[in-house]
Amino acid sequence: MTREVAPKDAVAISARLHVSPHPLVREKLTRLRDERTPPTEFRHLVNQIATLVLYEATADLALTDSEIRTPLAAYRGAKLKETVGLVPVLRAGIGMVEAALDLVPEAQVWHIGLFRDERTLRPIEYYNKLPSEATAQVCLVLDPMLATGGSATATVDVLKRWGAKRIPEGVATLSSAHPDVPIHIAALDDHLNEKGYIVPGLGDAGDRQFGT
Questions:
Q1: Lowest mean pLDDT, pick from 68-77, 98-107, 140-149, 164-173
Q2: Residues 6+ apart with CB under 8 A from 135
């Protein structure tokens, strides 16, 4: 969800970094961090926080006119102009998909599987379910934690090669590699420890969601 930001990077990152100011996000994140929170409640909290953060992250989606009729009259409304793709990073990102689909029911869902080499801390891709050509113009990368930034950066690399034009996601590594990508997060934590884990963090999001 976060990573430590050196002072020299802070100004450059600040324009692209969006930390939710919502009081409900802060309250739910506190419960999410609690080591006593069981998997069922943990999954529920991930869903709720994802809804709130994604609501803010999608505020600039482009619209086009849509002509409909209400029970009383004709009405010119709006619909999404671009196709939205959801890309949960396996496996922890799965917990954010339902929240995203509640907001954008017509979104496409594609999966990318990455795991972190615990020795090098570098991401290794083991699964990619993207079609051969880009079918979505806007891609939301779903991952509940951004530690070293390696997995998020690798995912955006894949999506840009695929042909996605806009990728709002969720700090220093990702911002350096992809300065055009906005980052939406629930909180910015203090630092990474020697093993690359976020401190204070919330533990392994995948393990805590699925009780493993």
A1: 164-173
A2: 83, 85, 108
- Whether 92 and 47 have beta carbons less than 8 Å apart is answered as no
Domain that holds residue 150: 7-64+79-210
Checking DSSP bridges between strand 112-116 and strand 84-90, what pairing results, if any?
A: parallel
Mean pLDDT score, 156-166: 78
- CA 52 from chain center: how many Å? 12
Does the residue 72 lie in any domain?
no
| Residue 46, domain CATH | 3.40.50.2020
Report pTM.
0.74
Question: What total number of domains does the chain contain?
Answer: 1
Show the beta-strand stretches assigned E in the chain.
17-19, 63-69, 74-80, 84-90, 108-109, 112-116, 123-128, 138-142, 183-185, 191-192, 198-199
- Spell out the residues 6+ positions from residue 59 whose beta carbon is closer than 8 angstroms to its own: none
Separation between Cα atoms, residue 98 and residue 209, nearest integer Å: 14
3 confidence band (pLDDT: 50, 70, 90):
very low
